[in-house]
Specification:
alpha/beta, Alpha/beta knot, 7 helices, 35% helix
């Protein structure tokens, strides 16, 4: 299997033939109106690390090419399939139509959330993270199958979007 270090990744163009031949896991990531381009770039890096099938960038989330996204992703935007959706609800609807049986999981603090490590994740799986300040809209939460939350025991009430996604994603892939 092809393995590239940071230096090689930063200079690759994402060969389409190689990209198509790489095995993918039935994992989709929905990025709902995330503001910080470094978060978006880091999400690409995480998506590549778990061989996610696709990343959906929604709403006001910046899209490649963007120098900050490229820097944070170490150019994994060239290796991960991604698509822009005008709204997160459009991305969810598209996934439900194109990927039968997909489970949509929102990573969000909500009165309806359950601890992330108490969920039976099912594949295919879409994990969604939302705006760092305002979170997901109620409409988007209602469109999700389950809402998960990471318990916080300190004075801070939340974790970084990418960190939260990584914690939940690596819990979920234990079932693959």
């Amino acid at each position: 299997m092809l393995k590239l270090g940071a230096k090689e990744l930063r200079t690759t163009q994402g060969d389409e033939d190689i990209k198509k031949s790489l095995p993918k896991n039935p994992i989709f990531i929905i990025v709902d109106n995330v503001l910080d381009t470094y978060n978006t770039g880091s999400i690409f890096r995480l998506a590549e690390a778990v061989a996610a099938t696709k990343v959906y960038l929604c709403g006001i989330t910046e899209t490649p090419p963007n120098t900050r996204i490229k820097k944070a992703s170490i150019n994994t935007t060239e290796w991960v399939e991604w698509e822009y959706a005008e709204t997160t609800l459009q991305a969810i609807e598209k996934l439900r139509q194109e990927v039968p049986g997909i489970q949509i999981v929102a990573v969000e603090q909500s009165p309806k959330s359950v601890p992330f490590n108490k969920v039976a994740y099912q594949f295919p799986l879409a994990l969604m993270v939302s705006n760092e300040t305002s979170g997901a809209t109620q409409e988007v939460l209602d469109a999700s199958d389950v809402i998960v939350e990471i318990p916080m025991w300190g004075i801070n009430k939340s974790l970084n979007v990418m960190v939260s996604l990584a914690i939940v994603l690596f819990q979920a892939i234990q079932g693959l």
